[in-house]
Amino acid sequence: MRDNECQHEPLNRGVYASESQKSTYCDQCGSKESPEHNEIRGEIFCPNCGTIFEEKLYDKLNPKTHVNTQDNNSGRGTLGPSKPFGTVDHAGTRISTKDRKKYARLNKINNTIYRDAIDNNRVVDKTIEELKRINHTLSQEKEKFYRKLLMDTLSTAEGTNLFKSGSKYNALACALVLDSEIDRRMFFEMLRYYAKANNLTKKQQKSIKRRGIEIRRILEIKSGINSNQLTPVYPHTADPSSRPSVVYADFIAHWWGKKIDLVRKFSNPPKYSEIIKLINTILDNPEILDLNGGEMLETILDACLLLSMTYDSSSRQSGQVMEILSLTPKSRSYIVRLKTFLDRDN
Hints:
single chain, N-terminal domain of TfIIb, Cyclin A, domain 1, 3 domains, 3 strands, 49% helix
């Protein structure tokens, strides 16, 4: 036997096992299958015999599914508010009056922190729900990013003011801020669209606006986004290696997410594929609208949508469509050239 070997330790086990072997080798059944991760229970276990390798893993992105909750703990202890205590400690030693007052104060602070944490987690979940309702094209990656941003912000000193206690507009205001990419001008536009679509009163709109401004300021600091960020404009110089329709695909998807509910208010609206096809054609061929660079991209998209809604439907008036879809007034300046292009193309 060699000096570096032990007669009681197999060569493929324990200290002699490689890292890959250690991570996939079950001591109980010998299975080499990759361990499974149960996010609800917060455990990593062997898929063959069920042996638990790691437990009580905290999921910051989904606090409501954390193992230490009343609903998902399977009989194990939970982290909750502190319980009242008597005049003696666990060992039976008497606690002085001075110490009892100090502990009572700490107990009150602990209960407040616990209650605020539970309330904040609920608001985060409600914010994501509102965001999905506002933007039907929200991707899972974006949802995960926004949830992490909110949870990370709440863990900072500045984040304690993110959600105002007692305000019923926390989730809605935060969802509108996130959907506007934390851009001030876009947030005001989003709020205007939402208020019109949901018949909000001026008082409700004012309350949401006030909350949104405060939330945007805090998230802006946390995310590091420039407060002077502008909405995209058409590039001055075209990059031959990439098309504008591809470069601005995310912005187009975001723009469409705001319009889709409004478009559905019309009977027999144009197909999404037809609208996007027209948009991509216009963006990749700037000579159609004589685009020289610097034009607001949102205005170009609004013009394409306006013409798509009115081109084959004489019953739809452009003014009515612009009002219902909340299109930018300047989008009308492209209509003549767009119509000429479609007439020639057809």
